[in-house]
Amino acid sequence: MRDFTIYQVDAFADRLFTGNPAAVMVLDAPLPDDLMLAVAAENNLSETAFVVRDGDAYSIRWFTPSQEAAFCGHATLASAHVLMTELGVNGPLTFTTREVGTLRVTGSDGSYELNLPRIDATPMEAIPPALAEIIPGGWVEVVRNFENIFVVLATPEAVTAFVPDAARIAALGEGCLAVTAAGGADHDGNPVDFVSRYFAPGHGIEEDPVTGSTHATLAPYWAGRLGKDELTAFQASARGGRVGCRVTADRVCLTGQAVTYLKGSIRLPA
């Protein structure tokens, strides 16, 4: 057996117990896939990030409690926070991924900018009939990207009032659904440009508290609808999280804070 250091960080949070908690392990060498999945399942958080030095960059992989994730923003932010704040690594940081290219993080002292690929939504040609049962009140538009369905609702109140049916959502395509609307406010009553919620029961996540990856699609969508390239978003989960968004021709930059909750040691097979 061998001891490994693990951190838990609240990402897109300016104080503990808000935002989205992610576990982070910074490793000397990659762990076997089945062991990383077992660690993520044991952590039972939306994502656990595994980071390994790769030349001048860091390779990063993310695991939900049930499978590897193709793209995760909040655990990347959490990983950058651990490297900069806990391990003294000077930014900017570059992360290499398996499916979404290069991610970059700048910042310090718990405030960061996460630079992601812009992933524009496309119209959903064949809307699953089950969607009418999941959202009986109807919608304004349904679009998708490579891993999620995005349902635009008429009002921010409809987003906050939405009651998810986990079993039906899990049966939808990739098993991941976001609902969103223009306007709204954060939990402190501060107005924002758009709100959203995200559900991925097909990946072992009934509701994700704050999802960086969905904003790579939501930010350009609402930038086009609202006619502005800089927006403030709020993910209206119970924990909640504000996300600053800046949209360019091919990238989306998200700003947010992070706070370390836990530093510990876990014992794994050598």
Classified in CATH, the superfamily of the largest domain is: Diaminopimelate Epimerase, Chain A, domain 1
**What portion of residues is helical?**
10-25%
The quaternary organization reads as single chain
Shape: globular
Task: Provide the fold topology.
Layout: E1 2-11, E2 20-27, H1 33-43, E3 47-54, E4 57-63, E5 68-69, H2 74-86, E6 93-96, E7 102-108, E8 111-117, E9 122-123, H3 130-134, E10 141-144, E11 149-152, H4 156-161, H5 166-170, E12 177-182, E13 194-200, E14 205-208, H6 212-226, E15 230-235, E16 241-247, E17 251-268
Parallel strand pairs: 2-3, 4-6, 11-12, 13-15
Antiparallel strand pairs: 1-2, 1-17, 3-4, 4-5, 6-7, 7-8, 8-17, 9-10, 10-11, 12-13, 13-14, 15-16, 16-17
Describe the structure.
With 270 residues, this protein is α+β, with helices and mostly antiparallel strands. The protein has two domains: 2-116 and 255-268, Diaminopimelate Epimerase, Chain A, domain 1; 122-247, Diaminopimelate Epimerase, Chain A, domain 1 (Roll), CATH 3.10.310.10. The chain has helices spanning 33-43, 74-86, 130-134, 156-161, 166-170, 212-226, and strands spanning 2-11, 20-27, 47-54, 57-63, 68-69, 93-96, 102-108, 111-117, 122-123, 141-144, 149-152, 177-182, 194-200, 205-208, 230-235, 241-247, 251-268. An eight-stranded mixed barrel has the order 1-2-3-4-6-7-8-17. The longest helix has 15 residues, at 212-226. It is globular and about 55 Å long. The mean pLDDT is 96.
